[in-house]
Amino acid sequence: MNESFGVRLQERIRDLGPLCVGIDPSATMIEKWGRVDSVDGLEFFSLAVLEAVLDTAAVVKPQVSYFERFGSEGYRVLERLLEDARDANVMVIADVKRGDIGSTNEGYAEAWLGDASPLRVDALTLSPFLGIESLTPFFRRAHESGRGAFVLSATSNAEGRQIQRARTADDVSVEALVLQSVAALNAQHDGLGSLGVVLGATRERPEFDLPALAGPYLVPGVGAQGANSDQVARLFDRCPLGTVLVNVGRSILERGPERSALRDAARRWRDELSAALL
Amino acid sequence: MNESFGVRLQERIRDLGPLCVGIDPSATMIEKWGRVDSVDGLEFFSLAVLEAVLDTAAVVKPQVSYFERFGSEGYRVLERLLEDARDANVMVIADVKRGDIGSTNEGYAEAWLGDASPLRVDALTLSPFLGIESLTPFFRRAHESGRGAFVLSATSNAEGRQIQRARTADDVSVEALVLQSVAALNAQHDGLGSLGVVLGATRERPEFDLPALAGPYLVPGVGAQGANSDQVARLFDRCPLGTVLVNVGRSILERGPERSALRDAARRWRDELSAALL
Questions:
Q1: Are B107 and B101 in contact (CB under 8 A)?
Q2: I need a labelling partner for B95 at 20 to 30 A (CA). Which of A10, A247, B79, B245 fits?
Q3: Contact B138, B108 (CB under 8 A)
Q4: Distance linking the first and last C-alpha atoms of chain B
């Protein structure tokens, strides 16, 4: 890959709009589609969503927990999905929230950002509980390979506040510390950075000037989780076009299995978010 | 399973000693054994370690990142390892540090604690970054199935302090909040609890009376990471026998691939830790 993830993502959002479609094949959702919750149901669901949204969504975001439910066979379905997405030139963020000590993170970085890995994606989500510095293997490998990473700052769930709003020794909240740290990493390279932050649309504005990240935001919490496109627009009002990627899952997925209904729902969300974020 | 994880673990530690052997098939370690870092190398390494320590270690702890490097094929090797461990009656803790919002955690809980899952283990490690309450699906499923979980409190790496020692709104450190919360969950049931905490031997004593957890501790940081058995003994001096499980990885693994050398190293660590923790 010649261009960095940050630049590629920005171009794609400018072309297609800021919609990220969550591919969340939970037991509940597969059964809502009238299918049996099995490896076959998982494959049918995942590939159907990809096919329906590939010309509308800037990015798709498979939630890996729902694949891991089926062990190695679930991972084989995930590999098939990732292959199809690559063939269709759809960008993928693996929602894995990985994070461990440095040496262990080398293994995860190889899994999700390694050029030869069957699980390679454009970017992944990371949890900073073991310290932001422990995530260095991901940052290094993302930079080398033209891929990216999104570190959790303020997640969309209410219980997230408990630890994310705790105050560090420098009297800054954990969520703001993540933003500051990722901004500092992006500042080490010219242009738009490839390291992003997960910031829930359901959360308060953090103590950080959001455009200063100089990298992308991945925004959950819209639709079924309660936030609307106006809230997103207000929260990110001064961020450059193409740096805010908004995830919608359930509100689109529950329209399936009809491809046309899925496609229409994705287009409506895309158009609404595009208009709000312009 | 008739007995709870906490009780089964305590019995096993009383019988065999407090050693947990980390199965960490990193590229570096596989190559140190003179093998090619491939799916075959991964399988050889993992099964060899299990076989060498199965009558010495109370528990084995595969580090899942090193299996995920190889995608679905790596997970197939992990499934084979877990099957062999079940056949040999060796307890397994999957070191996965999973943690997400509640609905997503249902998927992970099914993967690692579900009776029908090929990845089912006795217990897993959890990251509380999205709030301890978000981990409820794991706690519920552990209780129902006689399995367990270890929530990260203070990890063995120095960078862990950054977030783990931040102060919550109730002016308690994040690491102590985890201990208090898990203790409260264990107190909901009679007897020794099945919910544990990860507490690095390299870290300071937290603001919490450690025996009050009424559940097991998983203790990393011993051996190559710098702590010794006396430090462990001092940190947990008033905890009941059978509630402290000490992980040793590299210091044993680097003695391979000779089974007898691996076995001897595991026995030495087991004997030393048993003597110190008595």
A1: no
A2: A247
A3: yes
A4: 28
Residue ranges of domains in chain A: 5-277
CATH architecture of structural domain B5-277: Alpha-Beta Barrel (3.20)
Asked if the interface predicted TM-score (ipTM) of this complex is over 0.90, the answer is yes
Q: Do B68 and A127 touch (CB under 8 A)?
A: no
Residue type, B23: I
Residue B154's φ and ψ, nearest 5 degrees, are -120, 110
Q: Is A97 an active-site residue?
A: yes
Cα of A109 to nearest chain B Cα, Å: 8
Query: What is the pTM assigned to this prediction?
Result: 0.98
pLDDT band (50, 70, 90) for residue A163: very high
Dihedral angle over CA of B251, B253, B256, B258, nearest 10: 90
Question: What is the mean pLDDT of the segment spanning B117-136?
Answer: 98
In chain A, residues 145-164 whose CB comes closer than 8 Å to chain B: 152, 155-164
Task: Report pLDDT for A204.
Answer: 87
